[in-house]
Amino acid sequence: MAxxxxxxxxxxxxxxxxxxxxxxxxxxxxxIAEEAGACAVMALERIPADxxxxxxxxxxxxxxxxxxxxxxxxxxxxxxxxxxxxxEAQILEAIEIDYIDESxxxxxxxxxxxxxxxxxxxxxxxxxxxxxxxxxxxxxxATMIRTKGEPGTGDIIQAVRxxxxxxxxxxxxxxxxEDELYEAAKQLRVPYELVQYVHQNGKLPVVNFAAGGVxxxxxxxxxxxxxxxxxxxxxxxxxxxDPVKRAQAIVKAVTNYNNPKIIAELSEDLGxxxxxxxxxxxxxxxxxxxx
Amino acid sequence: MSIAILALQGAFEEHAQMLQKISVDSVFIRNxxxxxxYISATDGNRALIIPGGESTAMMRIxxxxxxxxxxxxxxxxxxxxxxxCAGMIMLDDLHLNVMDIHAKRNAYGxxxxxxxxDHEVEGIxxxxxxxxxxxxxxxxxxxxxxxxxxxxxxxxAQQGKMLVCSFHPELTQDERMHRYFVEMVKKSE
Lengths: 291, 189
Hints:
By secondary structure, chain A is of the alpha/beta class.
């Protein structure tokens, strides 16, 4: 039964592939996202750019607000809980959320332990910045992975760094001989079986999305070409000048990520992109939370 | 034979892998140019698979890419088509409106309602079925034939050369649904 549940949860992530998951804070934004072609929405009270601006402790959103978004759309609804905060996750499961993001965007609740995600029936997505983190989260029960990137910045550099790191570590494992895998497992601090899976299949055992800093159709295309199965767009849409147009453009950019002519057309007249903060200008590196 | 797979969003790669297992070529359709190339390059034995994913996302892109009318016309003029999950919704009366069915979206509720089982499909046998936030057919016209009913709900049907199912055969190791469709395409020649 438990194994079957994990399989079904991995399967839902497969259905999201080639799609865009958008951060929304109101039912109205959720409807705009769905109408624009989002394959899922992430319900949260404040988008990462505002969390960054406001500061202080950032927690799971009000369940009532999340329910309002669940009622507004027919696509899957995700919501975030703090790293290690299994009680928040239990609440999200109780309101039948489709996917929980155990997220470094919120203030961590536990600086050692992540949630034992195998205890839950609802699926979890977790952030990772390298292969070791990704496989540790999968071992804890995550059925979908995303790069951490650097949320709320509109700066793509960290997402690129994390995706490139994961892909190069995957390629390294793929080329190893069988007897080298045990040492690789030790260095990555993950079970041998997961290392063996990556070695044999040349990919993670779950779907892997890009997240944290995607702001333009070109950013989405870049991440897809680097090997992402789809993208999360957080602050990039509703912090921009023309959210509807930008949302539609990013959706289509993910479908046609390897067609520069189409991406060029999609990039025209999008209005102001979110202002963005450079990596070197920020105080708080969310990607450093939860390893 | 080469089968087109609508690759706008969702689990289209899984269908390609399934077809590869039964030695059938496939091509991804992401935009109008891909579709036109497929239609002009392939003679005879053409067919289309519409995969699982989110039907609202697929509808948005299919309209914006001007694929809606050409695909609808091709199906009406006899192009064999196979829709799984969201693909079933795409073929119903409220979407491409080519099949005499109405699909109920998220008929089993949210992800906690997703499940897998083994069940009988007429003409195919007992196969493993994976339902992910799945639809079922709420009403069906006289031209369409019911191929499988689970707990009183229609989960698989065929109308001429159009085949739909609520579940995801492409997520299992059992290729009989795909073989059934490929045989259908061959017969339609």
